[in-house]
Specification:
The structure is a single chain. The chain is of the alpha/beta class. It is 48% helix and 18% strand. The protein contains ten helices and eight strands. Strands 7-5-6-4-1-2-3-8 form an eight-stranded mixed sheet, with helices on both faces. Helix 1 links the parallel strand 1 and strand 2. Helix 3 packs across helix 6 and helix 9 packs antiparallel against helix 10. The two termini are 39 Å apart. Bound molecules: uridine-5'-diphosphate and magnesium ion. Uridine-5'-diphosphate (UDP) binds next to strand 1 and helix 3. Keywords: Cell membrane, Glycosyltransferase, Membrane, Transferase, Transmembrane, Transmembrane helix. InterPro entries: Glyco_trans_2-like, Glycosyltransferase_2, Nucleotide-diphossugar_trans. One of its GO terms (molecular function) is glycosyltransferase activity. It is found in: Cell membrane. It is a multi-pass membrane protein.
Length: 317
């Protein structure tokens, strides 16, 4: 566009062993970008892939210098890959999306429109999720609802990391240095004007999900423990309830004076023990977060970067 300065949009894509589909993703993005007015850059963060993902991205860069690559020294996890991508992005707005085309690029213009209308965060809200197991859909649905109740923050329902963020939000996010970051929660924490665009989440174009159950569980625990103290209160309530129960059981034993009450006592004892263990587990989870922050290790280590004019690193590692 002549005479008007086109703001730049950075697209951040975390990549972990995506060799099967990465070229199709790049091709789809290039096709999409060629039909847009805005200037774009694509920042791929290779999260320690052990396949050819990084080589394929470097090859693609030979024909398109809007492609940039940050390579981690090992697998640090999806949320840290996003964190790094956000820190390297130079755009006026930053869009985060999966590298498997599950988040359709066609939604980006709608996000940009909402951004231009004065919103600083435009998040993609999933209407449906194609090709995902009933287990994943159910647990995800449940998780977002529990999280919503557990925190005073307005963390939107059924919303992943696919979103557009204004530079003002990105600047704040880039400075946060919290271990085990739950990025979508942090974005809500930053505030500003936030709105949703809805979309249908597609199936992966290729390869398998890189989110096995343990990673999904880890993300859920990070989300809950970094944004809610409610689980800690559970022990207080459970303790009070069980105390009442034991008082009732005790009175019952004294009043009735019959045999067999020992069973009841035993059952109460078991229940109490299990709840004590559960409470200790909860406390340890929060303690672990404090322990991790006290180590003051960098969140991730970058091995190599390709395509950046200047190295801009928030802590310098
Ligand atoms: N990913 C990553 N590091 C990981 C796991 C996943 O960078 O440890 C990337 C992955 O390549 C993809 C995005 O994060 O671009 C989301 O992962 P995935 O598609 O496997 O999750 P799902 O869509 O199945 O929830
Ligand atoms: Mg995916």
């Amino acid at each position: 566009m002549i005479g008007t300065q086109t703001p730049k949009i950075s697209i951040v894509l975390p990549v972990y062993n995506e060799e099967a589909g990465i070229l199709a993703t790049i091709a789809a993005l290039e096709q999409f970008i060629s039909n847009q007015d805005e200037a774009y850059e694509m920042i791929f963060v290779d999260d320690g892939s052990v396949d050819a993902s990084a080589q394929l991205i470097k090859q693609a860069r030979l024909n398109d210098d809007a492609i940039r690559l940050v390579q981690f020294s090992r697998n640090f996890g999806h949320q840290l890959a996003i964190t790094a991508g956000i820190r390297y992005a130079t755009g006026d707005a930053v869009v985060v999306m999966d590298a498997d085309l599950q988040d359709p690029p066609e939604v980006i213009p709608a996000m940009i429109k909402c951004w231009r209308a004065g919103n600083q965060v435009v998040y993609g809200q999933r209407l449906g999720r194609d090709g995902e197991t009933w287990f994943k859909k159910l647990t995800a649905k449940l998780f977002y609802r529990v999280l919503k109740r557990a925190t005073p923050l307005d963390i939107p329902l059924d919303t992943g990391d696919f979103r557009l963020m204004d530079r003002r939000v990105v600047t704040v996010l880039a400075k946060l240095d919290e271990p085990g970051p739950f990025v979508r929660g942090l974005v809500s924490w930053v505030g500003f004007k936030q709105t949703a665009v809805t979309y249908e989440r597609h199936e992966r174009i290729a390869g398998q999900s890189k989110y096995p159950l343990n990673k999904m569980f880890g993300l859920a625990i990070d989300g809950l423990t970094s944004f809610s103290g409610l689980p800690l209160q559970f022990s207080v309530w459970a303790g009070a309830g069980l105390f009442l129960l034991s008082v009732v059981a005790f009175i019952h034993i004294v009043v009735s004076g019959t045999a067999g009450e020992s069973d009841l006592l035993l059952a109460t004892l078991l229940l109490t023990t299990s709840l004590i263990l559960l409470s200790i587990g909860l406390v340890s989870t929060y303690l672990y977060r404090i322990f991790v922050s006290s180590r003051k290790r960098p969140l991730y280590v970058v091995a190599e970067t390709t395509g950046f004019r200047q190295v801009q690193h928030y802590p310098n590692y």
